Amino acid sequence: MTDSLSDLPNRRALHAEIQSYSAKKEEIAVALVDLDGFKMVNDLYGHAVGDKLIRECAVILEEVCGEETKPFRLGGDEFALCMSGPLCGTILEGVCRNLLERLVHPIPIDDRRIAVGASVGLSRSSGTDGLVSSELLRRADVSMYVSKRGGKMRCTWYKPDFDRNLEALRDLDSEMRTALLNEEFKVHYQPLVDAQSGKVVAVESLIRWNRPDGKPIGPNVFIPVAEESGLINAIGLFVLRQSCTDAMDWNGIKLSVNISAAQLRNPEFPIQLGQILEETGFEPERLELEITETCLVLDPVVAERSLDVIRGFGVNVVLDDFGTGYASIGFLRQFRFQKLKLDRSLVVDSADDESSRAMMLSSISMAQALKMGVTAEGVETEAQADLVRAAGCDQIQGWLYFKAMPKEEIAQHLSALEPLPINEIHDLQRNAS
């Protein structure tokens, strides 16, 4: 019962090992180890390099395990560790932390140095509680996903709350599927204005969800669940199609739609985008897709391929939340964004903090040097608007001008594109709210 690639014992061997410990009524501890970033290695360098990385990780596992802990390969990029006896949980956690420390350093493969991390979930049995091997592994698996959601490169012990939280997430996922069928999701739009004239030049589509009982559920709650369950693709296509349909007659202004990392990783997304543009008749040159740095870092090869196709349609690509990550000039040049959106935190902090202001000014200068437009989002005060306007931002978005509103209300604000005095914009906003 040996895995042919790594020469480690396989999943069947692990179950047999746990069953033998259970038969002796011994305390058992199990760790499930999932490599972070392994898919990216396969995409960038090919499966031959990925196989070599698996073998090197197996060697590292054997080294950190020593004689007391046994390593196993379960398949793909999943490994497991198992041991029994008094204090086995404490010892196994120490082994796992040693493993994470080893994986901080890149692993040499041929002429490359490949960085890969790991997320670890741990579970234990007293040996007399009747837990079978499949349940121990299930608990370790649940804990491993908690480690991934918590930021990766960490160890997490199983807690009963994890199952209750998982059940709540499953319930929310089921509710979202019903909501999608029953058209409970709605799209609202927040206008962006020209920094100099105050004229509305674009709108950003934002999804809203009110349950049948009237209770609103924020996107910060349901979007992460949708991304994890895979429902984000269906929800994202709904927002894109609805937005293109609604914006068809909005006087030629730009339409910005947010695209999640999961959508961009889907190789079918560019095809689906093309179909929506064809079905709705929406002009590709009016569409801006907003993506975050995370979308690109997670899977840069697939992202770049998709973006090349998307740009081929004539669609613009915008880097959202700029100032919260680590995007370099090389990164910006590689992906050829048409526009940067400065994150709200950068705008707010710039009013009172010199270092934040310097960062904002340098970001704008860099964008201008790369022929990119710049939008400041989250602007709520006149002082912030004056600051970003003087700094050279092209567009401003925020509650100072408009909140997000349904399509029925936004029509009155988009019926004319003549420049509006700031006081008139504020009057319109107060009337809409």
Automatic annotation (TrEMBL):
Name of the molecule in the record: EAL domain-containing protein
Listed Pfam families: EAL (PF00563), GGDEF (PF00990)
Domain EAL residues, every copy: 169-418
PROSITE patterns assigned: EAL (PS50883), GGDEF (PS50887)
Residue ranges of domain GGDEF in the record: 26-160
